[in-house]
Amino acid sequence: MASIVTAVDPKLRELVRLASPARTASALVATTLFLSLAVLVQLVAPAWSMLAELREQSPVRAAQLAPMGWWSAAVLLVLASLASFAIAPRSEALLRAEWGRRRQALEYGLLLWALATALLPPALGWRPGAVPSWFVMIVTTAWQLLSALAPLWGMRAIVAFLGRRCQRWREARQGRQSVDSLLAAAAGVLVFSTAVPILADQRLEFLLMLAKFLAVACGAILAFGLAYLVMNNWWIARSLVRPPALLGEMVDSA
User: Whole-angstrom Cα distance, residue 95 to residue 236?
Assistant: First the structure.
């Protein structure tokens, strides 16, 4: 009996099969990968700034790297948005209906996030090679977080919908990456890395050390979390492309 249960997935009987599962699977993985890379490239400048602070060096180099991170992230977010449009094409009417407005939150939210990432910092006066003011750093940090809310909300929904078709994802539990925890970790990186130069300027040593530690910790959690999210969606994609046989199909073939 155990071998039969592992060979088939009884839950699939409750779900309608997708019209173009290979396209949906490829788009899901591509969207997740581009989104993860967009977040990671934006960690380069804060990480460099942290190293500069630890070595008691000038953060100018990190300020020079920041625009490269924004523009690279903006390109990757546009690619993620384009890939997300293929997750639920018009042929997948049921999936589009079930996803609802959260589909648009992911598709268009990624575009808005890319636009904000590329244009907002320069518009506020953050120039390459210059260390920005506190106001500019705080506003850009807050805007990044607000821009990320809608697409991550849409991503969480589609992972939940498609994850029901993957037995490994359903049974993983501890191995499933929560999108909410990724958002919390990203918020921690942005907030604490923004606080580091401010606290250093105010010579608040204890709070400065604490902010550095929390920024590094949140960055590590975010990096591992994104890797887990890509892995989870790879499981789902494989299950969509090669779904387990239904019990009735096995009996008929026998």
Answer: 15
At 154-204, the pLDDT tens digits run 888 888 888 887 777 777 777 778 888 888 888 888 788 778 777 777 777
3-state secondary structure 107-166: HHHHHHHHHHHHHHHHHCCCCCCCCCCHHHHHHHHHHHHHHHHHHHHHHHHHHHHHHCCC
Q: Is 50 helix (H, G, I), strand (E, B) or coil?
A: helix
pLDDT digits over 55-109, tens only? Answer: 655 555 555 666 777 788 889 999 999 999 988 888 777 778 878 888 888 989 9
What single string gives the DSSP state of each residue in 58-119?
A: -THHHHHHHHHHHHHHHHHHHHHHHHHTTTS-TT-HHHHHHHTHHHHHHHHHHHHHHHHHHH
Instruction: Write down the pTM of the prediction.
Output: 0.78
* Residue 245 three-state SS: strand
CA angle 82, 167, 184 (to 5 degrees): 55
Task: Work out the angle between the directed axes of helices 21-41 and 205-241 (0-180°, nearest 10).
Answer: 170
89 vs 99: CA distance, rounded Å: 12
In this structure, are residues 109 and 150 in contact, taking their beta carbons and an 8 Å threshold?
Answer: yes
Residue 206 CB: number of other CB atoms within 10 A?
8
Tokens representing 220 are 């590590």
